[in-house]
Amino acid sequence: MQTEQTPAPAATPQEPALPEPNVPDAIADLIASVEKEYQAGLVNYQAGKTEEAKQNFDNAFNALLGSSLDVRSDKRLEDEFDHLVEGVNHLDLGGLTSGAEAQQKSEPAPIDETNEIAPSADPNVKAKAQAEIKSTRSDLPLMMTDQVAGYISYFSNRGRGTFERAFARSGRYHDMIVSTFKEEGVPQDLIYLAQAESGFHPLAVSRAGARGIWQFMAARGRGYGLSHNPWVDDRQDPEKSTRAAARHLKDLYKQFGDWYLAMAAYNSGPGTVQAAVKRTGYADFWELYRRNVLPKETRNYVPIILAVTIMAKNPSQYGLDEVAMDHPAAYDAVSINYPVDLRLVAECINSTPDALQDLNPSLLRLTTPRDGKFELHLPAGTKDQYEAAITSIPPDMRLWWRYHTVHSGDTLASLAHTYHTTPKAIVATNHLEASALEADAKLIIPVAPGKHPVSDSATYARRITRYKVHKGDSVESVAENFGISAQMLRRWNGLHGDSLRGRKVLALHLPISPSAHDAEVATAHSKSKRGSKTTQTAVVKPPATKSAQIEHEESAEVESEPPAVVHHKVRTGETLYSIATYYKTTVAALKHENRNLAVLRPGMILTIPSAR
Description:
Elements: H1 26-46, H2 50-65, H3 75-91, E1 107-108, H4 110-115, H5 123-135, H6 146-156, H7 160-184, H8 191-198, E2 204-205, H9 218-223, H10 238-256, H11 259-268, H12 270-280, H13 285-290, H14 296-312, E3 331-336, H15 342-349, H16 353-359, E4 374-379, H17 383-390, E5 402-405, H18 412-419, H19 423-430, E6 442-445, E7 459-460, E8 465-468, H20 475-482, H21 486-493, E9 505-508, E10 511-512, H22 517-529, E11 566-569, H23 576-582, H24 587-593, E12 605-608
Parallel strand pairs: 1-2
Antiparallel strand pairs: 3-4, 5-6, 7-10, 8-9, 11-12
Helix pairs in contact: 1-2, 1-3, 2-3, 5-6, 6-14, 7-8, 7-10, 8-14, 10-11, 11-12, 11-14, 15-16, 23-24
């Protein structure tokens, strides 16, 4: 907020000031060196020197992320990082980002769907629940209204699956959350706020960009110590976010003196609730509800939580006794001060990257942070195995090298081809005396930086997620909440700068893990052949998982929205003509959209010109 200043008195004549000496600007110097390397990579890429380009781009990333300067400490550094990611992704999503861009799957936050429903109350359900409340022990005030009864009916019928999955998952975090709430002095039954919000899923993302079990927005999370950078988002850390949620709820209670109002403020922000109280003179949630001075989502929010609480605390009455509850995941914690790829970690302990991501939900990518310490969680009982195996990999190669268990039919040549290395390098690294490989032997594979297989790449969801712009939003804040590049958000929506003034809806694509490119092409082309009005939003590799289902809507629904960008990954045998024909455009338009492209090579990522 700007403040008025008293005008300075008129300056008296003085002798001309001497020129100030040049002051070194470390950030400007770093960006200049990074940009020089990036531009060299573009030159090599356009010249067809793919390997040289990969090395240039790796050098640019390493210079920016390996410096003593924190990328998120200065907007210039953030912009340069986004510029690099966008530029490299535009050229080739197949490994040029060193594997660091392979991102976690997201899950839709249940609260978005539930909040859109206003179920009617069943008199029998209401009467039964009213009787149960009298014998229900809770440290939250429980009361029965038509709205609460309506949501009990919903969760008992159409929303049964959503409720049961969340109820089962609560077993994994119940003891930790209850213990933390007890320590912080807040009602332990507020645990059910998380069931309503996220279904206890650390990777839940709402349509507004809130993340984690407790659905923190980025700015609010920072206020309670939940940091966010390109590799780690503490909002997705169950323990850290639970502590933050407890303190935030306690602060809201101190402000309003009422747990219902505190819950409402948790949903819509304390300013919204404070304004409603000031407008009406009533510091009572149900009075504010009756007077319709709260947002619809907030009016539904408290009844949803009360319905979930009543059902969860009376499992027998609602047929929940047979639900198989999850158990807390046992793990070993290893404090590391080096970056490591989770795929290498998995190979060290005979696990899987998915299992490791499940134990480390705060990691946004398949690597640990490049700088600083990180507490890596491993399956229980594997710490010693990991520490013994990782010592054979040089610290500066733990983002690149791999372990491989030899299978029948493996040869030095086949392994070298698979991992983009050489037989000589494998022999030297493993001190092999013969070319024959023993079955089940574990080999260290020295993969050169930037040469991971294409399958290590990441991408965005094909379908559009529509985001309703709220007061105070900016390009940077929306991009941060959803974990996407601000540059990509601008490109998808034809934006310039950071302002969203005049925009009501944004189209965006959520980051997802890779899947089959052929499925994407088939889907996009089948729609094209059917003459669908749906905007084609293929972004290289589509989701094959339910993570892609996160509250998206086709762009045809809002005709005024700009068309989303369509990307196509070039396959062997394709030509500019065949691609242009496939997407019903022209070779000239295709070339113009891709920097006057002249030479086509497999693996390239082309931007398809939108239909006009």
